[in-house]
Amino acid sequence: MAIRGFTRASTLGPIAQVIEAAGGSAQQVFSRADLPLSLLQTPAAFVPLKDHYNLLRHSADELADELFAIRLGRKVTVRDLGTYGQWVVQAPTLLESINRANKSMPHMLQSATVLSIRITSNSAIWSYDSKDSASEGRQHNEMLALCFMIEIAREHLGSGWLPDRVIICGRPTHDIANLEQLLGTNVSFHNDAGCVVFDRCLLATRRLRKATTRLSPGDIGRAINVPNPHDLLDTVTSLIALEMTERLPRIGWAAGKLGFSERTMQRKLNAAGSGFSELVQAAQQQRAFDLLLEGRWSIANIAFELGYSDAAHFSRAFKRWTGFTPTSWKSMADFD
Question: Which of 84, 100, 154, 229 could connect to 108 by a Cys-Cys bridge, CB 3.0–4.6 Å?
Fold first, then answer.
């Protein structure tokens, strides 16, 4: 399959605001990247890493700014990382925080990615290495990831903390002086994983602030749901959920994302024990349940959101799924 990794939409941070503030069009950028702009309203949704790379590349092209990912990274916060971010920064020391980040990354936030730490006699070298096969926009993605890593460290070291240096994988940017000014530290480039380098003594630093909320095992367990990029059904289900944020998913679109023809896609799905229409229906059901439980959507709006022509068609479909009308089901769910 062409896709090897997924990341949560939340890792894009306030990308639309940053694009618009710089005079660009977020709608055009998302369209060029073949992603629905509405996914920003569903930060827990999963985006193929290849598309994440492309979106950052198109953003940089739109603004003619090779350092766009760094400018975006300066706006991100640990809150953008959701449950993963909370779990990581609630660790008592910076070293434990980094260890949590490394171990839980592929399960809670982003697959096909390896975070690791190497400790030398003087330095801690915290690395980010994407294993996704996509190349376009890879460096932009890494720059953004390194900014998130710096923000995680600042939860223990203070908002003004700066690493000793940052190393970025790939060819040097044209404006290294401006890059170093934006990051506030020395920057170098090489062909290995990108990394943040700092004094190893800082690893023992304790968290600055006491956590205001504690995550339960259930909170953490629910966040361990990053799609398995080697599981076709898991991958296609995630693509369907992504497309459903804006329109009814089409098999041709999903097949194209995976580098398959429609016929090959359907054959592979059948061999895996399902079909595209069955996966779409399951996603519609789950989306319908979620929207009904939110309580702020009318039946007509939910029907439109799921691609039905009117509320009556949606209600009949819902009754086939559950044996109840949407209104009756919601009443029982609210009672429970």
Answer: 84
Q: CA–CA separation, 136 vs 33, rounded Å?
A: 11
Distance CA 317, CA 147 (A): 46
User: What is the number of other CB atoms lying within 10 angstroms of the CB of residue 144?
Assistant: 24
pTM: 0.86
Residue 323, both tokens = 């044996």
User: Cβ distance 249 to 239 under 8 Å?
Assistant: yes
Nearest Cα to 36, choosing from 51, 24, 21, 49?
Answer: 51
**Residue carrying structure tokens 């994988």:** 169
Residue-level length of the chain: 336
Residue 102 and residue 43 in contact, taking contact as beta carbons nearer than 8 Å: no
pLDDT digits (tens, 9 = 90+) for 152-187: 999 999 999 999 999 999 999 999 999 999 999 999
Q: How confident is the model at residue 309 (pLDDT cuts 50, 70, 90)?
A: confident
Residue by residue, DSSP assigns 100-169 as HHHHHHHHHTBSSEEEEEEE-SSEEEEEEEE--S--TTHHHHHHHHHHHHHHHHHHHH-TT---SEEEEE
The answer to whether residues 145 and 163 touch, using CB atoms and an 8 Å cutoff, is no
pLDDT tens string 224-271 = 899 988 899 999 999 998 988 888 889 999 999 898 999 999 999 999
How far apart, in Å, do the first and last CA atoms of the chain sit? 42
- What pLDDT, on the 0 to 100 scale, is given for residue 1? 58
Q: How many CB atoms lie within 10 A of CB 123?
A: 18
**Which spans in 248-324 are helix H?**
251-258, 262-271, 276-294, 299-305, 311-322
Cα–Cα distance for residue pair 239/257, rounded to 1 Å: 8
